Fold these 4 entries.
Entry 1:
Amino acid sequence: MLTALLTKSWRDHWRGLASWAGGLIAIAAIQLWVYPSIRQSSEGISQMIEGYPEVFKEMFRMTDYTSGPGFLNVELFSFMVPLILIAVGVSWGAAATADEEHRGTADILLALPVSRFSIIVTKMIATALVLLGLCLALTITLIIGTRLVDIDVAAANLFAASFSCALLGMLYASLGFLFGALVGRPGIAMGAGIALGLAAFVFYSLAPLVDTFDAITPVNPFQWALGNDPLVNGLALSNIGWLAGTSAVVLAASVVAFNRRDIST
Amino acid sequence: MTLRVMSRDVRPSMALSGSSYRLVMDASPAANDVEVARDVNASSGDQPSISLRGLTKYYGRDRGVEDLTFEVMPGEVFGFLGPNGAGKTTALRMLVGLLGITRGSATILGTDVATAPASLRHRIGYLPGALALYGNLTGAEYLRFLARMRGRRMDRRIAELSERLNLDLTRHIHDLSKGNQQKIGVVQAFMHSPEILILDEPTAGLDPIVQREFEALIDEARQQGAAILLSSHVLSEVDHLAGRVAIVDGGHLVVVEDIATLKRRALRTIDLDFAQPVDAEPFTRLPGVTDVRSRGCQVTCTVTGAETDLFRHAAGLGVLSVRTHEPSLDQVFFALVRGGDRHADRPADEIVA
């Protein structure tokens, strides 16, 4: 690992990171803030949701919207948090090598007496730590917030849900790394990663309604991250294994691709 | 005139390369022998610092380089010349490991670059042709970052080089002019005092004063035994720096030659002004004189070798003034690459001879 490069990656992006972290914390805080009024009028809301189209309820898994964990699942973990962490992961992965190449800064960086392996692995570590940091910021916000508004969720489960989303982000980050190392164009790598993330999200959301989507759910990363309902059930080792294992395979492929790549001018 | 396939100090393997160039050399074989002998003496006992053997890279459509073979010795400044798009950058980027090698090989300090560990690059300074730095950093931050990546502090050397090049390190790189960014590029190439310098169009954007300082840096590195490979598309740029040059065109090596020999052999364009119009025809019969054109009171021609006969004839006609143009790289090409195809694309009516 190259400390100089690690600190440089964070320093270069601290503004972006601060706004992602601020956004995550703000979204969590606002949802927690409105939760007491949801709970108060839970009967009315339950009736209202009862009247929603079945499709809508299944898509957003709104079965127990007014319970604390149910509310957090619908408002945070079914949509916002995973997609934010995927966006952060993909953009870091896609930019890691491809942005250096696209801007031309790779010419001097890769002519330094450090291997391409060290460079890309350092950037992977930087990305993983960024996602972990966002996960911890969110977890802490949720631990404090749930205590304040009296939601009964174990701190471990709040971490489990955040961490699952961070791992999901890392899986898509690894795809960003792979596409970046294969094509050397950050825009294309980012677009491809985001497109795959959204596709998996749509498949996962519509799985209760569309049989063909449901058929692939077992290999859908969203299922690995959220299918076990970590907010209620905590971390499931097999799901974590699938997310981490797939990420590791894709990251290894990225290293190979980057090592072989002809750096374009 | 003698027609040979390749210049003498090119390895035999080059002569067998796929290159279709036919070279016309007009220097006497004896003079050439002297040059070759001197080169051999200079390098006796030394291993080449940089060695390319049939180095080939294909990529894209019709891009890349084919069968480049030459060596750069310790303490030698070696010019790498060719028009834009000739493949100079491709070759240099293979040497520093940015591009893979399709065929052939290249060694630096005896190590094959294809399998070299990253640590070999401790001994290499590289200045890319299309320089791109981290604009959000100041010059000092950027150079310190590179020094840390190289694993040691180089503060004093960085300060010394920056002062010599008159470079302000406190400003953000995106606020610097092209020339000042180029200075940072020069500093990062030299700051670890490498044994190998690979410089791609290093003087681009540098003003003449800084260029002189840059030449002094090159000279110091050379005296300390560094091997310097310097690319350019302008002959005059490497003229007073390099001992030998390799010329590439269209991805092929055209010649590897001592620069003095090359220039002697080059066509020079000469303008002769007379008081009244003169008959251009007799000029065409002078030895070494070609491309005679006349317009009004002026006769323009190109000369290879000695100019004595030309001046004698012109003096007899009462020449008023003579202007000699330094050979441009193009003209060197014409001198070397006269396979006939080069002249074919020039308008016939321009050529009297």
Entry 2:
Amino acid sequence: MDLKTTEDVATEEERKAADSVIGSAPPSWSDGLRPGVGGRVILGGQRRRANLRHLLLPTLHAIQDQIGWISHGALNYVCTRLDIAPAEAFGVASSYSLFSLRPTAQTVVHVCDDIACRAAGSDSVETMRGHFGEPDTTDGQLTWRTSPCLGQCEHGSAAMVTIAGSPGVREVLAPFNIHELDTVVSNTTAKRPPTPATLLNQVRSELHLLKRIGLVDPESLDSYRSEGGYQALRRAIDFGPEWVIRELKDAKLLGRGGAAFPTGAKWEAVAHSSVRPRYFVANADESEPGTFKDRVLIENDPFALVEALTIAGVTTGAEQGYIYIRGEYPLGERRLRSAITQAQSRGLLGDDIMGSGLKFQIEVRRGAGAYIAGEETALFNSIEGHRPEPRTKPPYPVDKGLFAKPTGINNVETLLSALEIISSGATEFIRYGTESSTGTRMFCLSGCVNLPGIYEVPLGTKLRELIQIAGGVTEGHQLTAILLGGAAGSFVGPDQLDLELSFEAVRMAGTTLGSGVVIVIDETVDMVAFVRRIAQFFRDESCGQCVPCRVGTVRQEEVLARLSLNAPLGSRQDELSLLDDLGSVMRDASICGLGQAANTAVLSAIEQQLIFSSKGNS
Amino acid sequence: MTSTVPISLQRRFDLTIDGKDVTVTEGQTILEACRQVQVDIPTLCYLETLTPVNVCRLCVVEVKGSRTLVSACSRKVEPKMEILTDSSRVNTSRRMVLELLASSVDLSLADDEVGHWMQQYDVHPERHGPQSDPAEEGERDRGHAGEHKAIDGSTAETVAQPIKRDNGQYLRDYSRCILCYKCVEACGVDAQNTFAIAVAGRGFEARISTEYNVALPESACVYCGNCVAVCPTGALMPTIEFDLRESGKWDPKSQTVTQTVCPYCGVGCNLELHVQDNQIFKVTSPLDHSTTSGNLCIKGRFGFEFVH
């Protein structure tokens, strides 16, 4: 390839930030410039093959964290070090919302204004506006911007604070509190705010995936082992891959990320591939609005994910694993990194796991604010240092996944369910749930409910029971609807409380469990604003690759705006049929699940007469 | 045919296209299979010489058993596939794809067939409302990922914006850009390996851009013009052609195309000189030419001044 940069050069601080990921430049380089090259260099052969592109995202993070924005000079330096064309690196950087490509305030507060916080009545955005004026100013020490769901929905309001510096600060405030924000910002020693407590409102003996939460010290491997940790890995190694895969198949485990694909079949396909190397990825890019289950698991029981991914690795013959965690989970990321280091030092990861001779390593990769990166093939592109755009399937990840090699990828909850199956056995696992939806499932209860939080119940539990376990609808208020499955899910009405929460029953009812989101909505919630926020979400998070989603999400938002302002183009019926047509093309012709699901919640809200009807509150 | 067919390891198998049995070769795409039996599939982002990116979604067809429609340009044929190219689902999606593009992008200089498809599929872009005012210079290049201005729906948002004219060879009118990725592919691994441009931003704010939107002379661009050659909508255009059109002298009827061989080096690239009023306004090379596959370098593409 042909590499040419402009004459903008990086400052010493910017180079230092980049070098903290890439390593120092060769001694022959002076001031970050490749020696003896007049602006343009042709790269080929060995040089081209030593592909460092996968370091792009971590390097951009280092610069963003330490400098606060990514300047042209900094990007040029990164490109020269990693042999990436600047236009391509710019394309990558500009597709993530947590990267700034122009100078900005040292402190940036990302305030959640998404649907779960809305349903809970959060006024953080108004508070911020009152204190700091309009969002996204470039002058001054502090600026703020609104953010899609930060995954802190049980707290009812949330903000993430980033302060550039070395070391920089990344902290989450949940619930959001302006005084606590002052403390974080004014404290130059970067004292961390108290970690939000995870409350379990269930009897521990009924829990399986959550059973260690609150019992184990998330920072201590010994504590995890004393609760039975790493016995499952021992069994997986002793009994071998075929046994593990048979257990998963006998347990009939279906993926918990949204697509409900049989996990045993996926692991088997990777394990039986003839190609090496193979990879296994834990998808912790939990960004579906209203979802926070993976965060709770990772923050409180990080070793369980590390052990589960190790089992997946040794079973499928992958020697390198990745955990891709969203950039909005700094605490979870810290704990995972510490867990991995501890596991490595005790021979539970590395070149000879538990003395078996088996190899497995795990790297943590941090997302940078892109819902679409949670789509599995977009996630691979993100790790590889490309734009997080979904790929066309087939080929499927088990054939050509990360770095075009066979790859297994599972959601965090799926991996923890697999861990549970290996430690307690398939027979025990299928005691819970229904005939075809086995085991327990985590649900994220938020909005107008008395005890918002994480709940683990057997699949097949009725929606009514689940809401009752969470203390029921807020005192003195009336249930108007429930958003099931998140922004990509759909609304169900108060008349559907007897819905069984199993894969088959929700499919029959034309809805989805999605990522286990249950946002409870009462009459205080402005439904039109709520649905418009969903439409805005999809527009903002579309990667822009395919026409149906790129333009369709814009047109959908426009129709909703017109209808809510009572200014339809033509008749109201014309607008509704336009929405239908937009729904058809997005559902049928979009490349990935984002576009395909971008209209389901909107259409279900209209169908349920929650908006734009005489019955609705519009 | 009586010629000797080379023994191939590729399997041949049957499938149906719109109910008719068709024998295809393993590795073919659905699009190739359809074209082989004269079934017409509209495409925008597809070009024989580039890797299919299947982003325009105009070529979608229905495959029995598939939950969603599939893109004919990239999906490989499989035995016993039942393909429908003219179902109501297919036609709705094609109509809407064209409608979404026509309501947001200036398609007035797109290939002639686009106009025919608009009629064929009964496309009504005006359903989405009057078009929004053009963005100011650089406005669309400054967007922050995941954010956009609040809207009231009174106008249909478009990509309209001022033309980028920063060099003597060609200009970039991104009001006409449908984001088909062809120019990016031609600049990158599919032809030139220069990587001067890439897709930047995301969602509706996604755009073709140099790094930090620098002007082309500062970028890695080598002015091979291979991006101009593959652009299907006139977003990338030789400056001479643009000025002819602007001055009102554009006259397709008086134009001629002269075939010749590039006089510069010994490679022997075939050139097609597009001429009006004794002036070359554009140079192309045939897509099916074994040496060029339609690609040229700066000399062949733009180095014709000495002829005049």
Entry 3:
Amino acid sequence: MNNNRKFKTVLYLSMVVAILGGSAIGCAKKDTASSDQPSSTAKADSSKHIKISSMFPLYGDPAQKTEGWKFIEDKFNIDYEPLAIPNNSSDEKEKLAVASGDMADFMVWESFPSADFYNYTEQGAFLALDDYIKNSPNIMKLPKTVWDNVKINGKIYGIPRPRPLTTTAIMVRKDWLDNLGLPVPKTTDDLFKTAVAFTKNDPDKNGKADTFGFAVGENLAFLETVWNAFDTGNGWRVMEDGTLMNSTITPGRKQALTFISDLYKEGAIDKDFAVLKTTQVWDKINNGNAGIYIGNISDYAHFVEDTTKINPNAKFEMIPLVTGPTGKSGVNEQIGFYGLQVIPAKLEKDPEKVKRIISFLDWQMSDEGAMFKDYGLEGVHYTKNADGTLKVNTDKLKAEAIGNLISQNKFDPYLNVSKTAEPEVQKKQHDMFDYDADKGVTNPVISYLAPTQIEKGADLAKLRDEFFVNVVMGKRKIEDFDKFANEWLDNGGRQLTKEVNDWYKANKK
Amino acid sequence: MDSTTEQHIKLSNAISKKKRFHMINDWELYVMLVPGILFFIIFKYIPMWGIVIAFQNYSPYKGITGSEWVGFQHFVTLFHYNGFWLLLRNTMLISFYNLIFFFPVPIVLSLLLNEIRATAFKKFIQTVIYLPHFLSWVVVVGITYMLLGTQGGLINELIKAGGGTEIAFLTTQEWFRGLIVSQSIWKEAGWGTIIFLAALAGVDPQLYEAAIVDGAGRWRQLWHITLPAIRSTILILLILRMGSVLDTGFEHIYLMLNSTVNDVGDVFETYVYREGLIGGKFSYTTAIGLFKSFVGLILIMGANWLTKKFGEEGVY
Amino acid sequence: MLHYKPSIGSRAFDIGNVCILLLFSLITLIPFLYVTATSLAPMKQVLQGGLILWPETIDWGAYHTIFSNTHFVNSLWVSIFITVTGTFVNLLFTTLMAYPLSKKRLKGRGVILFLVVVTMLFNGGLIPTYLVVKNIHLLNTVWSVILPGAISAFNLIIMRNFFMSIPEELEDAARIDGCRNFGVLFRIVLPLSMPALATFTLFYAVGHWNNYFSAVMYINKSDLWPIQVLLRQMIIEGSVEQFQNAALEASAQVLPKSIKMAATIVATVPILIIYPFLQKHFAKGVLLGSVKG
């Protein structure tokens, strides 16, 4: 080992670092000189070859540098640098990117609403895109609700990645209903009876008491339509006097909790629900323990497949919503997007690049872009048959992971229909999305993040979950609901309600 | 002992006093320190400026220079938080249980392994017991659920078959801390033996032989030869352990925590996680971390001082 | 080796010892059995749930998915490089620093050690560390994953502790024969510290091999992803987003759970292979023979 040489290298490195180390401090600000091109003049030349980087969460394998990549580079006249981050840590990486000034030319910011995002926006980290996108046909196809939900202080700071607004359905084991001679439940009372029957009457006819009604997860997850049947409200409920009350303490919530704790007493809810995470809940359905599940329409496909693998006679069906005692029913209307594409404010100096990015994103949201994302390039990864169907080279497609070159998708209410499921399953999902479309219960302040929510939101949620779970399990009394509501109000709920109502009055559309 | 070596040693003892005096000024030793010191400066001390954000309302976009200073405000918020004492109590209790129940296990295991003379068996056991270290907490907690769940959990099935009523292990507060410690032992005790086994490997077998000749039984051999060999390692580990008195490990507790056991299981790390989810709390969560670090530092300093007072080698 | 007649108490202890150790081994073996069995079990058995300890039939599907991934071999090489180079860097830096600190009369030793302990407790956080790595231009290289972890303070302290247990006389003997400090370290102290070195080789190597988070934060190029990053990408778990983009993958001939288990095994087996080579250094009596040196 040559100690001398090593010593010198280390010394050199330390000098380099000492110089750079000083500049490391306070370097959280954005770097202004990263653009490849000189500041552009008024007339942007769209044939200029520029470099564009894009950061987004990656599901599955990273894309290979083959025909699909080249296609994009040729089409938009760019050197394309997709920075795909493993999805498990993409949130962290996005925060790091903004904080360290290492933002790509455009990137996905996932978590929304988020105090960090609002802060960064207000501090000027992101470019306001209203003017840039107003002439982009596909981008502007997004529904008004989605734009409303994404605006901050009246401006658009990111292009949303559209997702369906309503995605929930009730799913039951139809074969169990048939075995027990039960009709499809239409009201919450029916649902109660069904769940108890699933628990006590051996619906799978195997002589063992190994079944129960509802598959439920920790903090009472997967009960969305039950809450809505009791009119709890989605996040916040518009009360009779026009003000908003948090759905945690509405009268409907108390009734719903009573209903659910009665179910629990009968054993009709998974006794271990309080500890189960999502995949563990799904296990209970797949192995034939649970008979009722309330969740994403897109999940229906894999349930159908997995339940029949164990039991070919299993018939998992989605059923219409059940109504509650006051005749109400519904599913939660969601925010309508998952993550948004943001552009760093520093690119304001490079309108040509921004234009190119916008046209790239617009293409990604077009029909052509959607085909590219799912099937790759015609003639390379798939060919069209005479009858309009496609012959896809799935091996090549999978190996090259073309879909992971881009991160923006077309606005498509049927986006979450499983493309690899049987046609009849796909049709059912398709129909259910249609069915759900007008059943959404809105959260009137879904995009608003109140200061008290930031400060006390986590604690209020903890208080709520503790009470709800313990009431259902019988460890606390439902009669204490009012006491709990007061505690909730005293611990920040009152302040929160005021802030939300003020915002609502000021911004009601 | 060989006579040449005896001579060497006598000679070196004579010369050593003089030589050692010279060795204090031995520049080579300082040169050896340079890479390490550089490492600590560059990768540990330079980034440490990040700690000051605990005294600001830090926004990463504005940077340290752009964010406003708020002094000790976040610490005040922390101490006034009505769940603070709960967090402190839970954290300390779990840490304390770990100290009492977990800490000795690798030591005992390594001593037991040391007494095995069949090498193949010993190697086999050594390899098997460290295996769970490589599994994620998700797997370990998942297995725990399979064993202890009320609906179909194996242990509860056995209890029911034996005529008893099921025990809600996972949703009863009294079981929580015990479960946490048991899982830690299950998963990490084996891996923890490695250090002690390495220390024991350095013991001269001739010492044992000499002791046997002197008529010492196994207990006395253990007491006078084996234990002293690992005593300094135990002490060092114990002192370092003091530094993590307010650490409980995040993932493990987070996976086991649910709304029925918050009162006994909610610790600083899960609190920090919750607070950090919605964002905007860089400074607050850093302040909590700083608080934990300070407490740890005080304890390490105390433990180290105490150790040296008893004439042992401390950590520093 | 002297032989002596063991007393009854001694024999009883031995039997009890073996039983305890066997019991503990059994308990610790179960999780690993479960993971292995689930990785090999047919889909139906896995879907049925429960604590699988033996596959009904062997289904290599999960392993096939992993090994046939186009990036697998590349990631494997990256991980091997990081582990081997990284561990070497670790051992070099750590021993170089631990040795002087094991000398009682080194001036400033207490201060240096204290400052090292401080780094175990106080940490600037991700963003400042990232900025330092960025400013030394290590981003997007494998060095960004190796250098910031070059010394583990914990390992340093323990290694120093081991060095302190080496009798001074042996070093003096070497010095009399003309060794300088570097020579004493590399020719006397290190060979006598094989158990310690084996231990830290294991600790550091495992750390590198299992590294996920810093690789994701510091490396953007997917062809520099170590194996853990790749393996986690293959696991599709419980979120709509997963199914949406992975539509092409999801023809579900292999269950996510099986892949997850197989990934664990793939990540662990290499370590299991290395361990026996290190284990021989835990044999007793390493010091034996050195006295004659």
Entry 4:
Amino acid sequence: MMFPKKYWTITLASLLILAALIMISYHATKQDSDTGFFRRLVLEAAWPLESLKNTSLKALRESWDRYLFLIGLEAENRRLRKENHLLENQLVQYREGYLDALRLRKILKLQEQLDIIPVIAEVIDREQSPLFKSILIDKGTAHGLKVGLPVLSDQGIAGRITECSWHISRIMLVVDVNSNVSVLLQRSRTHGVLQGAGAAGCRLKYVPKAEEVKVGDAVISSGLGGIFPKGIILGVVAAVDKKEGGFFQRIDVQPSVDFGKLEEVVVLNPQKDRKP
Amino acid sequence: MMYPYLFLPLAGLLLVIFQTSVLNIFFMGRINVEISLILVIYAGFRMNVLQGALFSFLLGFFLDCAMGSISGLFTLIYVCIFFISVLVSIRVYAEQISLIIGFSFLCSIFEGLMIVLFFKIMYDINMLGSIVQVFLPQALVVSALSPLFFKLFHFFEVSFHDGNPQPAK
């Protein structure tokens, strides 16, 4: 042995420390030089594990980001759904307002034409039996209404008041089997009586077979009887049958008013008290 | 046997890479958990001088490379710590947990002081503030983890030597 055994540790320590110091000195003096061979070796050896770590971390980060994104997306989705719901409600309200305005405009136009005091009422209930067709409105004698007054909608004649309370009135619709309205066919000026037929609509009666009636002819009020003003539409001819026995032809009329969708009506109150 | 001379550098390299890359994630890069330092102390307590010294030298070099620090800095520090550990293990009973914890703490602080001193001498950079901010927490973490890693290294040593580990000096 070159060194005595008791100096072996000191020698080894000195050698290693010296090597480390040489390395430091080399690094300090050659700062700009290329990476050393051993350093490159270690870096190369570290590469697979670093790459694996980075891949794993990347996957983990992506999953986490995706999770966070999904959480954010879910929250945003919930917020947008709520917003959408709110906007839909607003849209419905605006649409309702628009439709109300359209109906009211027609009613006002009607008022100008007829020179009457219109009482606008809201439909609050409907009678749903097959033959008897009536509705309840939220106006009554307290609003100047009385039995017999004609009731119109923006689509034409709806019916007339048959019962009148202080704040509620019943309207017998023109499709009720008890309803009879004096009408005339607009094109041929033929008179007849429009009788309600329940769910089937209306039937125009007492039109002689000699009269020419066509499908699609408008049926308007004749003004006779003193209830309904003249010239307001009630419906159109849906079917004509002259083969039936008897003097008169059978004429089915499709009411112009869609009673299922009736929401507001106007009761025509003659302006007896109006000053000229 | 040549096995330790082939296996240990590889294991040391893997450990250093694991330590500098994976472990740093858990501490958000604020504290460097130096398991390699615990391993150097373990080597000083347990391994024979030549094997342990070379292993510490390599560990330091690997750490220099992995951390991108000045070549030889950690090599020098690890060699110094290894021989200090050898000296301590000759004089005291190195199996006590309190000794392992205390000694690991002191070695970690020593390492910090060496680095501060090195940068002061070489580049005239004052890093005294980092002793409290970086090296003290690092020393606390290392000392807290040292008993656990001593047990782990012991387990590996036993497995490596087929159930016959080297006795503590």
